[in-house]
Amino acid sequence: MEQEDYVAIKAKVSGVQVIGLTRGQDTKFNHLEKLDKGEVMLAQFTEYTSAIKVRGPAIIYTKHGVIDTEGE
After folding, report:
1. pLDDT for res 1
2. CATH for 46
3. Which of 13, 22, 49, 52 is the one with CA 20 to 30 A from 6?
4. Cα dihedral angle (3, 57, 53, 16), rounded to 10 degrees?
5. What is the mean pLDDT of each run of 10 residues along the chain (72 residues)?
6. How far apart are the first and last CA of the chain?
7. Which pTM does this prediction carry?
8. Which of 60, 7, 12 is nearest to 37 (CA)?
9. Which residues on adjacent β-strands are paired with residue 22?
10. Does the residue 30 lie in any domain?
11. Is 1 a domain residue?
């Protein structure tokens, strides 16, 4: 299996949710984490996880660049 892509997510406030979504015909939640302010989570796309949803103010670091969910 090839190496999968990673992303780093840093919460700007407490309560930021990181949700993993499955692959396949029916997309389902497969994991949920809540981050406190300043916490960082490393997430990976795998054969089972096709999408990661971030709900709340956070900074997301990817190989494609940095994304601020608040658009700043």
Report:
1. 38
2. 2.60.40.50
3. 13
4. 100
5. 77 95 77 94 84 94 93 68
6. 37
7. 0.82
8. 12
9. 49
10. yes
11. no
